[in-house]
User: What shape does this take?
Amino acid sequence: MTLKVTERRTVGTTTLNLPVFGFGAAHIGELYALVDDADSRATLDTAWTSGLRYYDTAPWYGRGLSEHRLGAFLRSKPRGDFLITTKVGRTLHRPADLKTFSRAPWTGGLNFEVHFDYSYDGIMRSYEQALQRLALDTVDALVIHDLDAMFHGDKTAGYERQLADGGGIRALQELKSAGDIKAFGMGINTGTALATTATRVPLDFALVAMPYTLLDQASLQTGMKACVDRGVSVIIGAPFASGILVTGSKSNAKYGYANASAEVQKKVQGIEQVCAAHKVALPAAALQFPLAHPAVVSIIPGAARASEVTENIKSFETPIPAAFWSDLKTKGLIDKDAPVPAGQ
Assistant: This one.
């Protein structure tokens, strides 16, 4: 049976019940292109009127712009009517030299420099700054953001010590015990981090950006299995694999927030052929696939325009025949052991 965006699943053993379909707010932080205020507002209005009630953002998204825009929208809504998650581990500061400051990799965003700090004080300051940008006095969950070698290289171990010995985890546990948040998790960008870092930290959930999508199930028997075994829920943060699973294969398609390789393009073309044979839209398959996994509680695709929200919801709620998933497995385009949605 096809899921509806309003259906909910419980995160681990917590009291946090998330809708299976949320709104990822990176794009209104001007990830790939500039988004004017009117378009941002129209996108959020459409998400709300379409029934979306879970929103995820971060200080990093647009260097504060995403939180500002999302908070300006949500602060006028009844607080009990929506759920919001944001991230900790970065604090934002005025650059020393505005003339030479670069907002990269953001196309737009704001002029704020980033400082990484996963210690007790760093987590608390990151949390308090986020509340101020959001103009909200509570968030429902916090996510430890980008603590992996992709961002930190040989400094990763030092930041992990900040989190453990420096009290970052203690800060999150205190916030949860006090009822300030219902849960906390960790953002994961790679299969290695999902199988290693995430298993060393006591978490309620992992927010997985790339390691488990319609394109990549290499983590199925490692990191994803570890989450099931430990009772750690998973939120899929990039069900479109950062772009190519919604745009399809084309010369400038994005995968892993960069131009897709020839190998990735070829695999997507294979999936597209199966989609054509079964009259299934590629974005529909991408959105529905992850939620069949027993650890996954929600997906949070992004959108920069109102029309993208509408299309995403339509794709999510469109029936897909069982034969489509079977054909993908037969052709080796998804892992033969990957859980798949029940067919229509």
Remarks:
- The first helix runs from residue 37 to 49.
- The mean pLDDT is 96.
